[in-house]
Structure formats: structure tokens, C-alpha cells
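Session log. Operator J.P. requested a structure for one protein chain; no other inputs attached. Running the standard single-chain path with C-alpha cell output.
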Amino acid sequence: MYLSWRTMESKAKTLLDEGEADKLERIAYILKTVAHPLRLGIVHLLEQHARLSVSEICKMLGSEQSLTSHHLQNMKLKGLLSVKRDGRSMMYSLKERDVSLIIECLENCQCNM
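Structure written below.
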């Protein structure tokens, strides 16, 4: 029997109270936001450095500036990063420090891959 995502989602919401369902939605939103190797690299760097510019991130990850800027903007719009101007540079930092805990848990996961 095939169930659509919407059907499964509505059934799951009836099994969970609204607060739990909302919490799971937020977790899924964060996971989707960081679910790219470059974005994970950015989070990893910002765990180690309080603030970094786009050019510093590009240099450390060996990535192109346009692609890196695109991912930084996406993460900023979704609330994971904050940005402040420092002279001519935009300095990025983790807004949600606990995101690094999620990644740490996944690094230690013994899933079959």
C-alpha cells in the first residue's frame, strides 16, 4: 500500500501533540538547511572560528566565492547564520551554536553507509 507524504504527515501529526510535531518540523528544517557538504563545511569552520568572511571561508574550504556566498545567504535567510559588516567585509557567525551538536552526533553515528 502506497501512502503519499501528505497522508503520512497528517497521520504522524495525529499521533503527536502539536508541540512535538512543531519541534520535529523545526529539526527537519535545520537538517535540510545544512544537508550539503559545503554547508556542513561552513558550520564546521564557524564552530572553530567565531566570525569569518566569505573570502576566509573560501580559502579554508577551497571553494568558489559565488557558490560559497550563495550557501551563506541561504543559511542566513533560514536563520542559522548571522552577519555583520566589518569595513568592506561581511563577517558570518553561527546564530544557532547548537547546530554543531547535531553534526557532532551524526559524525558519531554508526549507520551503515
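Operator note: The chain has a mean pLDDT of 87.
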